[in-house]
Amino acid sequence: MLKTAEDIRQLNERIQAAGAFVDRIKNEVGKVIVGQPYMIDRLMIGLLSNGHILLEGVPGLAKTLAIKSLSQATHAKFSRIQFTPDLLPADVIGTMIYNQQRNEFMVRKGPIFANFILADEINRAPAKVQSALLEAMQEKQVTIGDTSYKLEEPFLVLATQNPLEQEGTYPLPEAQQDRFMLKVIVDYPKKNEEQLIIRQNTQSGPQPEVKQVAAMQEIAQAKDLVRQVYMDEKIENYILDIVFATRQPEKYNLQKLKALIAYGGSPRASINLALAAKAHAFLNKRGYVIPEDVRSISHDVLRHRIGLTYEAEAENINVEVIVEDVLRAINVP
């Protein structure tokens, strides 16, 4: 919908006011998380645009602590599920149990009934458990017995993967990875940041605690505003060009990528690129999307949606290189 300059100015003012809680959350989470601003930003984008996130990184990079701190800062219900090879779907979603005193079956809800779910090492559980979680992510409800139960809002799943050990794991199929809005690669902190981490974890006295600094009502209001962020038709076409270039690279003067890409981004890639760009604009207190919003989020949206051929793997070409080539080839509006 076309908006006038006055409409966008008013939206900017509303976003300035409504987005104040974002800085409060970042400051509060920053008390216990040192040196991961990129990860915190991506968590906020997922929260504001109802998108689930796949986090990949070596152990000890505060992935669990980040989502737990976010839930404390928003006073949301937090659940951590450690995925193991012997886990069953009922351990995640819940099951019917028999009550001898009442002589009837009762529902025992599983840990999925929370606002923030941390699915730790999701690739360690069998496919049927992964499917149970992914169904809940997509439908925002679970079925126990004959009854369907709506999941609480907000509902955000953060699944972690350890890229080091692949023995005895069940890698997520590409179609299931597509359900995640973003795949975020968590890197090591810088040297000066790690020095702060050492001091924080070895000093005497009480450890810093994360307090509630935002209400659920503020988050719900912000989600509504994110959807209202203005996106020009030129930006929409820019998003479409990026996604279509991963499917038909030869039409965008990227003939060299044709032999390297097995399949490109799905329509979910286009939807999530647009939503994440709007959330990125909101985080920057803007009521309109600019090309830089799209570019900054493209790697996270596309890296798990592009399949590589054996030829690409033989030449040691990864998805990051392909996304970078696509972004360079597409004209910025």
Summarize this structure briefly.
This protein is of the alpha/beta class and 333 residues long. The protein is built from 15 helices and eleven strands.
Task: Please characterize this protein's 3D structure.
This protein has 333 residues and is an alpha/beta fold. It has 2 domains: 21-201, Rossmann fold (3-Layer(aba) Sandwich), CATH 3.40.50.300; 230-329, Magnesium chelatase subunit I, C-Terminal domain (Helicase, Ruva Protein, domain 3). 47% of the residues lie in helices and 15% in strands. Helix 1 packs antiparallel against helix 9 (216-228).
SSE inventory with pairings:
Blueprint lengths: L4 H14 L1 H10 L7 H12 L4 E4 L6 H11 L4 E5 L6 H5 E6 L4 E6 L6 E5 L6 H13 L1 E4 L2 E4 L5 E6 L12 H4 L4 E4 L5 H12 L13 H13 L4 H15 L7 H4 L2 E3 L3 H17 L7 H12 L4 E2 L1 H5 L4 H11 L4
Helix pairs in contact: 1-9, 3-12, 9-12, 10-12, 12-13, 13-15
Domain tally: 2
Question: Remind me, CATH topology of the largest domain?
Answer: Rossmann fold
The averaged pLDDT comes out at 86
Describe the global form. globular
Which CATH architecture of the largest domain would you pick?
3-Layer(aba) Sandwich
Estimate what percentage of residues fall within beta strands.
5-15%
* Overall CATH class of the largest domain: Alpha Beta
Strand/helix succession? HHHEHEHEEEHEEEHEHHHHEHHEHH
How many beta-strand runs?
A: 11
Distance between the termini: 19 Å
Key phrases:
single chain, about 325 residues, alpha/beta, Rossmann fold, Helicase, Ruva Protein, domain 3, 2 domains, 5-stranded parallel beta sheet, two-stranded antiparallel sheet, 15 helices, about 15% strand
